[in-house]
Design the sequence.
């Protein structure tokens, strides 16, 4: 299995631009998670899905952030408009069930200038 | 609520030294416990896990025992290598209604040749 796939691996953009991060979970996994990692705040759970349905989005910073999972093999995290404080590494993870072991993708390193 | 507390870092050791990284937790239910490792520039990888009291997780020479009486899950390795240099995260998933993975802050380990 290829594991969790994320794209792009690196993204540099200017403040105000829209950013879309993509994730393909491991085939057969029913739960998908989006995390953000910064030096200041560590790892933060942004949102997670069970069977393509958002279950908990309490970690989403504000309305500029949105996430979708249109099918079992694809999810997006969108930031519109982006701000410099959004600069971070964004990880996607998946698991068979929400309470089981999560497998992480390699992350997307986002820099907003 | 659930929480994970890791010892303060960073930790610097010489090759072949003994490693202990402390982790204690607070949970409302009966959590599963995890150690994840993040190598430079990469995503998080599951290192080992334990799902019930007195279980010992082990992988790549690392071990951790689920101690319910002390609510701890300390990570140990008898002889570290330079290639073990990474950030180590302790985490838990509770078995209650909240299935989110709760992470500790992580600790950076540097191993000198």
Sequence:
């Amino acid at each position: 299995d290829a594991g969790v796939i994320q794209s792009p691996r690196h993204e540099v953009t200017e403040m105000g631009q829209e950013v879309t991060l993509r994730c393909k979970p491991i085939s057969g996994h029913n739960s998908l998670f989006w995390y953000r990692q910064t030096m200041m705040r560590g790892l933060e759970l942004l949102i997670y899905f069970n069977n393509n349905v958002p279950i908990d989005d309490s970690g989403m910073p504000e309305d500029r952030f949105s996430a979708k999972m249109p099918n079992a093999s694809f999810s997006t995290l969108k930031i519109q408009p982006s701000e410099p404080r959004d600069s971070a590494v964004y990880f996607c993870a998946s698991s068979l069930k929400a309470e089981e072991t999560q497998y992480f993708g390699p992350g997307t390193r986002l820099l907003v200038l | 609520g659930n929480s994970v507390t890791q010892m303060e870092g960073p930790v610097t050791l010489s090759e072949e030294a003994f490693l202990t990284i402390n982790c204690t937790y607070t949970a409302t239910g009966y959590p599963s416990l995890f150690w994840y490792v993040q190598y430079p520039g990469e995503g998080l990888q599951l290192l080992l896990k334990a799902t019930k009291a007195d279980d010992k997780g082990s992988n790549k020479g690392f071990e951790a025992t689920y101690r319910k009486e002390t609510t701890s899950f300390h990570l140990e390795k008898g002889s570290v290598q330079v290639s073990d240099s990474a950030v180590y995260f302790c985490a838990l998933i509770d078995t209650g209604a909240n299935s989110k993975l709760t992470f500790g802050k992580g600790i950076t380990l540097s191993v000198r040749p």
